[in-house]
Amino acid sequence: MAVYTEISDDELARFIRSYNLGSLLSCKGIAEGVENTNYLVHTTKGAFILTLYEKRVDPKDLPFFLGLMEHLSARGVTCPLPVRDSEGRVLNELAGRHAALVTFLEGMWPTHPKAEHCLELGKALARMHIAGAGFALHRANALGLSGWRPLFERFSPRAAEILPELKTLIADELSFLEKSWPADLPQGVIHADLFPDNVFFIDDKLSGLIDFYFACDDALAYDIAVSINAWCFEPDCEFNAGKGRALLEGYNSVRPLTDAERKAFPTLARGAAMRFLLTRSYDWLNTPKDALVARKDPIDYVRRLRFHQTVRSIEDYGFELAR
Ligand SMILES: Nc1ncnc2c1ncn2[C@@H]1O[C@H](COP(=O)(O)OP(=O)(O)OP(=O)(O)O)[C@@H](O)[C@H]1O
Ligand SMILES: N[C@@H](CCO)C(=O)O
């Protein structure tokens, strides 16, 4: 579920009146999602997503997220476009929360991504990276290398509740990543959470990207590593080289990877596995078992991490990339 904040009919009607969106026809809570409260709103001018930002979003980051969606939309990336109210504001307040309305995107996310989806995703990710250039605002990656150890320290005394050897595995891996993390890769705006549930398709054609609430400035190739982990492993956590190749080839056909990015890829993939292993472990230990939000299994990311630890070069993944 992701309806943490209820809105009264009066509050909603007043809120919608402050936009030039005609009359309110309906409003339904959306069950999917974890971080924020989302409603699907219909007015006589169309369909919109109303998001109330919950506690894990830092309000000072909202201009970055909303501005980025405007920047990308203006450069041809299909993503939600924040709607301005009659005074030109994209960020408002509703039911005691910061709130925004964005355009509704048609499409469905793929529950069983195929290589064809991965190819499309790779191209879209590269286009997004290119379109992000020149965005005026900046946001450091709060869940990047420097954020991993402090997050680990918040749950390490209880890590054995997930897996007896988890504490040692993470501690050793963090030492490796802190020593080996590449500092000189091409940087830009990354999505940082481009999982299948954030990518919509209509008839196997990619129709849009959503959920920019982890977007930040970081190494572009790190974003590819996040998506390889999210899209190219089977439910039993076996790596699917065909899907991986499709994603990389799609990306490389739009924005060719540099030699430094190719060389760093196995380390980036380990870091991307670490980031989701840490957040999932923290949430696993700190979300009440009877909470309505489904917890995501950290073990899936232990398996990904162990796989990447065996890889020495990008060729070991079975990728053959054109230069
Ligand atoms: N612009 C949009 N158009 C169509 N549907 C949307 C849009 N934005 C959100 N949704 C729907 O709302 C759901 C939750 O959105 P979103 O992923 O942004 O939520 P969240 O709370 O940030 O969750 P999480 O970070 O866990 O993915 C999506 O799965 C999708 O069904
Ligand atoms: N995509 C994240 C959760 C939402 O950010 C995960 O699968 O752990």
TrEMBL record:
Top enzyme category: transferase
Catalytic reactions of this protein: L-homoserine + ATP = O-phospho-L-homoserine + ADP + H(+)
Gene3D superfamilies, A to Z: 3.90.1200.10, Phosphorylase Kinase, domain 1
UniProt superkingdom: Bacteria
Keywords tagged on the record: Amino-acid biosynthesis, ATP-binding, Kinase, Nucleotide-binding, Threonine biosynthesis, Transferase
Protein EC: 2.7.1.39
Domain Aminoglycoside phosphotransferase: 27-257
Metabolic or biological pathway: Amino-acid biosynthesis; L-threonine biosynthesis; L-threonine from L-aspartate: step 4/5
UniProt GO BP: threonine biosynthetic process
TM segment ranges: none
GO molecular function: ATP binding; homoserine kinase activity
InterPro entries: Aminoglycoside_PTrfase (IPR002575), Homoserine_kinase_II (IPR005280), Kinase-like_dom_sf (IPR011009), Pseudomonas-type_ThrB (IPR050249)
Tagged with keyword ATP-binding: yes
Coiled-coil segments: none
Family note: Belongs to the pseudomonas-type ThrB family.
Protein name per Swiss-Prot or TrEMBL: Homoserine kinase
Provenance organism: Hyphomicrobium denitrificans (strain ATCC 51888 / DSM 1869 / NCIMB 11706 / TK 0415)
